[in-house]
């Protein structure tokens, strides 16, 4: 049996701390999206009806994405200035706390127009917390990891996304299964939101024990911290910023599968909602392992190849996704979700290492956070609204599939260009190796 070295124990502690936060982050964010597609139109926009109410509910979902770049800008600035660990504690507290408050929020029937106003405010704050959380959680893991296994270790906190999907969707599935429709609309929908308080307490307990990034500590020791990281980033690294922005476009199918697809199936097909939710839970449980496989594969064959393969798989399956769903056969719906989203989770595993290797340490938090969060705000957050509008305008799903194909191919092309910048990546590897050796 291999001995557990202090370095290995520390890496496990850091992985657990990063994983706890990202799991809470995605639990909160996907829980909101799932609930918005199912009932928030009825609860908070009761003065509207049908498709219009749903579009307003999806608009509040998009607001969380709109605020993510702002959160990324604020928290990454201090993350590059004062350290990764402190920002991770603040962002996870903000995200989890807001989710609990949403679970306590009165509906339109109780307080009228104030209900959607408060919902929008809380969703905005939640988006800010998540905008600063993702980049920091990825970096504190990647910056501790050995260079040759950075893809694997970076994939571990990424599994928190799939785990968050599993927990949030399972929570909705349980509440819809164990309660009547009236009870679910009346009070049961609040329980998954309130459960976030338990997850927040666990996340904070673990994160307080995570050590600071050794690479940031080295930047601090050498007095290389920048007064305004964003200005340095845009002036010295605009190509890396643009490429990371474009690569993140392939994340859009997350909202298509987890948010819009639930609404689409609920609206157009006579299939049990609980069965669809169960299929999403099972698929995302498998995605946990696919994410780790993607990270390991990126260490073996290269980050760019894995990212491109995932983008192409999603593009190829963009039309078959809806063809299989429209059959109304539950087994085919499950298969469609798994194959289509499988391409995303494959590239998701290698993403932290890939993106991190494009930026120097003193602007890495800023570069990683703002580029990805700006991309997801402009495209991923608006995709349920765009997809709903396309469905209403065309009466079919061909325009939605075409939209996904364009975004995935653009992401794959950006990954090809980013992967060709091998000299810069090799220089980053050398810096990482030197810092880890010195520590």
* CATH T-level topology: Growth Hormone, Chain: A
Quickly count the helices: 22
Label the structural class: mainly alpha
Q: Poorly predicted ranges (pLDDT <50, ≥5 residues)?
A: 422-427
Any guess at the CATH architecture? Up-down Bundle
Broad shape:
globular
Query: Largest sheet, if any?
Result: none
Proportion of beta-strand residues: under 5%
Total beta strands: 0
Terminal Cα separation, in Å?
A: 27 Å
Radius of gyration: 21 Å
What number is the mean pLDDT?
A: 85
Helix content: over 70%
The domain count comes to 1
Q: Helix and strand succession?
A: HHHHHHHHHHHHHHHHHHHHHH
The CATH superfamily is identified as MFS general substrate transporter like domains
Under CATH at level 1, the class stands as Mainly Alpha
Task: Note down, in words, how this protein is organized.
By secondary structure, the protein is mainly α. It has one domain (12-208, 229-438): Growth Hormone, Chain: A (Up-down Bundle). It is built from 22 helices and no strands. It has helices spanning 6-44, 50-66, 68-81, 84-103, 108-111, 114-142, 150-178, 181-188, 190-194, 196-207, 214-221, 229-236, 238-247, 253-268, 273-301, 303-316, 318-325, 330-356, 361-380, 383-394, 398-419, 422-438. The protein starts with 5 loop residues before the first helix and ends with a helix.
């Amino acid at each position: 049996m291999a001995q557990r070295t202090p370095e290995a124990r520390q890496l496990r502690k850091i992985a657990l701390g990063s994983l706890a936060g990202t799991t809470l982050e995605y639990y909160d964010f996907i829980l909101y999206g799932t609930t918005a597609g199912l009932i928030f139109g009825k609860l908070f926009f009761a003065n509207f009806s049908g498709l219009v109410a749903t579009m307003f509910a999806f608009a509040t979902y998009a607001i969380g994405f709109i605020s993510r770049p702002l959160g990324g800008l604020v928290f990454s600035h201090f993350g590059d200035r004062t350290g990764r660990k402190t920002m991770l504690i603040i962002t996870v507290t903000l995200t989890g706390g807001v989710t609990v408050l949403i679970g306590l929020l009165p509906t339109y029937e109780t307080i009228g127009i104030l209900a959607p106003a408060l919902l929008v405010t809380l969703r905005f704050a939640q988006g800010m917390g998540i905008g600063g959380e993702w980049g920091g959680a990825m970096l504190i893991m990647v910056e501790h990891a050995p260079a040759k296994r950075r893809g694997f270790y970076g994939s571990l906190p990424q599994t928190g996304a799939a785990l968050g999907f599993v927990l949030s969707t399972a929570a909705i599935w349980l509440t819809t299964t164990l309660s009547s429709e009236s009870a679910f609309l009346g009070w049961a929908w609040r329980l998954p939101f309130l459960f976030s308080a338990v997850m927040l307490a666990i996340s904070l307990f673990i994160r307080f024990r995570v050590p600071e990034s050794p690479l940031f500590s080295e930047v601090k020791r050498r007095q290389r911290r920048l007064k305004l990281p964003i200005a340095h980033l845009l002036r010295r690294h605009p190509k890396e910023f643009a490429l990371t922005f474009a690569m993140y476009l392939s994340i859009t199918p997350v909202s298509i599968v987890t948010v819009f697809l639930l609404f689409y199936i609920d609206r157009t097909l006579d299939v049990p909602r609980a069965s669809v939710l169960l299929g999403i839970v099972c698929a995302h449980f498998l995605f946990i392992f696919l994410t780790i496989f993607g990270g390991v594969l990126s260490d073996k064959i290269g980050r760019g190849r894995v990212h491109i393969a995932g983008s192409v798989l999603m593009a190829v399956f963009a039309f078959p996704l809806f063809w299989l769903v429209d059959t109304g056969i539950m087994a085919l719906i499950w298969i469609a979700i798994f194959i289509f989203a499988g391409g995303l989770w494959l590239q998701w595993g290698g993403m932290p290492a890939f993106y991190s290797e494009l930026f120097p340490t003193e602007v890495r938090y800023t570069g990683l956070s703002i580029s990805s969060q700006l991309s997801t705000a402009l495209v991923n957050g608006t995709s349920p609204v765009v997809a709903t509008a396309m469905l209403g305008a065309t009466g079919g799903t061909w325009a939605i599939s075409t939209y996904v194909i364009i975004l995935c191919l653009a992401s794959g092309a950006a990954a090809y260009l980013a992967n060709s910048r091998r000299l810069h990546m090799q220089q980053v590897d050398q810096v990482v190796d030197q810092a880890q050796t010195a520590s």
